[in-house]
Amino acid sequence: MSDLKGIVDSLKYLSVEDRRELLLILRNEYNHPLHRLEDEFHTKAEVILESIARAGELTRRMLRGVIAESIFKVEIVDTQSNWNDLSSDADSSADFVLDSGNGPVRVQVKLQRREKGVAKTDGRTWFVETQKTRNGVDKDGKATRKYFFGEFDILAVCMEPSTGNWEDFMFTLERNLTPLKKDTTRIAVMQTVPMVPDAQWTKSFEECLRWFHEKS
User: Fold this and answer.
1) Mean pLDDT of the chain
2) Which fold has domain 57-215?
């Protein structure tokens, strides 16, 4: 351990280029992977990242959405010991189904809308797109990409596009969302998100849970 500490201490004297070279030596000579996906995909992390960099905008958008869901799981769900994550067992279109003892709550996670690489805004509010990624039709031939009211309980919006921080979220109850003008049983695709919390939007997931249970 003392030898390892000495090596770590000596790293501060290396240039950025030397540190990169050392990392390549460790990875190439000692077969040290950065992530388990390297084994699954049978290639290096650098190749996987380069593939993402070369991918089209739709693929990147989908990936950013997955990152937002993962951040919600790691930074919010996994930090609460009293919550049961029922997502994998629940028959639900929501991203997460959670139960803290007061009954299940369905959470849909979305990433704040971006246009031309920046957060979409009208100068007063932000925007979030609330529709499913994939197109589809139901047994009656109706499009299923737009959500029906009743498919989830809480909308969690990752605000990374405007704040640069993946851990920043805004939360609201599904019932607060604007319906489609032509079909009020469905949720309008584009929803506004206030720039600061108000009576319907909060930065606290716990507060939004209280709203849900109080009005259920």
Assistant:
1) 89
2) Trna Endonuclease; Chain: A, domain 1 (3.40.1350)
